[in-house]
């Protein structure tokens, strides 16, 4: 993949980060919920969540996930990541990502990144299906 396409995927994810859905597995049943990922320029993807959430329990049992970014309201741009999520324990990494959030993360975690309730998930893509326009069609990126 050329760097232009990779940048387009990052741009889609950043633009649509407030209209994103995460699917985890609960046994053999997918569970989908809205999330607000934090996306870095190098295509690193992070999800902040509560340590006691169902999604964390599900990821602990089965790390396979899908994460879908969709432009609102038209859906003209989209990026769907299939891969795995890992729970990040490193406090320095949690603090670094906390500062990158494009929203006020302290509204959800008033005790900060050191809080026991704050859990950080790293999304490790295996395949990204994306499009930047309906006319351009679906494309596949495999890191």
Describe this protein's structure.
It is a single chain. The chain has 143 residues and is an alpha+beta fold. It has a single domain (3-141), classed as Electron Transport, Fmn-binding Protein, Chain A (Pnp Oxidase, Chain A, Roll), CATH 2.30.110. The chain is built from three helices and eight strands, in the order H-E-E-E-E-H-E-E-H-E-E. Strands 1, 2, 3, 4, 5, 6, 7 and 8 form an eight-stranded antiparallel sheet that branches. A hairpin with a 5-residue loop joins strand 3 (38-39) and strand 4 (45-50). It starts with a helix and ends with a strand. The model has no long low-confidence stretch (mean pLDDT 95).
Quick summary of this structure?
This protein is α+β, with helices and mostly antiparallel strands and 143 residues long.
For this entry, what is the oligomeric state of its chains? single chain
Give the distance, in angstroms, between the N- and C-terminal Cα atoms: 9 Å
Give the radius of gyration.
15 Å
Give the biggest beta sheet: 8 strands, antiparallel
* Mean pLDDT reading: 95
Keywords:
single chain, 143 residues, alpha+beta, Pnp Oxidase, Chain A, eight-stranded antiparallel β-sheet, 40% strand
Helix and strand topology:
Elements: H1 3-15, E1 20-26, E2 29-35, E3 38-39, E4 45-50, H2 54-61, E5 64-70, E6 78-88, H3 91-100, E7 118-131, E8 139-141
Antiparallel strand pairs: 1-2, 1-5, 3-4, 4-7, 5-6, 6-7, 7-8
